[in-house]
Amino acid sequence: MTSASASPFPFPPTYNFPPFFTPQPNTNTRQSQLQKWSSLIQSWCRHHRQFRLSLIDAVETPLFHNAALRKRLDLREARVVVDWMSKSEEEGGGGRRAEWIAEGSAQGKAVAWIWWRRPEEWADVLVEWVDGTGQRGTVLTVYELIEGDVTMSQEFHGMDTDVMLRSLNVLVKRGKAQIFGDAGQEGVKFF
Q1: 144 exposed, middle or buried (CB, 10 Å; 0-12, 13-18, 19+)?
Q2: What is the pLDDT of residues 59-114, one digit of tens each?
Q3: Transmembrane stretches, by residue range (predicted)?
């Protein structure tokens, strides 16, 4: 889902600082810069309810292009940032807040999941909703979870189907849910 929020996105103060758009040579400064880019990308995607980010498209948006400063991140540098986001903190990265989609494709690293909530975190949100609404033991379709009236007020309403299924699979591994049915018509029972 990529529908935009009605309110304008609140850019952080660093977005209006020209060096933010230039790779910094000092290691500590560079780490700080990458952390700020990661935070900005996650906030942007959350605000716009975007789960997949096409870098080819995004480099032309205000996310990577500050028109007032006439500064931008090019595609190569945007890939460097998302690469950093995709690594664990132990690997010197951004805590696995991104994941490349179809990395081996002809386009290479062009589209990534942006985990403003990782599937494990979405699974926790789903469990909280299930417990809070008495849905344990009931069967719901994945479509109902994503598009149903009962979830309209939930943050996961309108979620990308692939993200929902990954989150539900976390619950399956935890023994808190069972998924059944054919692709595109999945149902889920919560325990």
Answers
A1: middle
A2: 999 999 999 999 999 999 999 999 999 999 988 889 999 999 975 555 578 999 99
A3: none
**CA–CA gap between residue 77 and residue 138 (Å, rounded):** 47
124: its two tokens: 């926790």
Amino acid in position 55 = L
DSSP-assigned beta bridge partners for residue 65: 72
State residue 175's pLDDT score: 96
Looking at residue 101, its pLDDT comes to: 92
Secondary structure of 125-149 as H, E, C letters:
HHHHHHHHHCCCCCEEEHHHHHHCH
pLDDT at 2 over 60: no
Report the distance separating Cα 120 and Cα 92, nearest Å. Answer: 21
Question: Is 93 in contact with 87 (CB distance < 8 Å)?
Answer: yes
Write the CB contacts of 14 (distance below 8 Å, at least 6 apart in sequence): 20, 36, 40
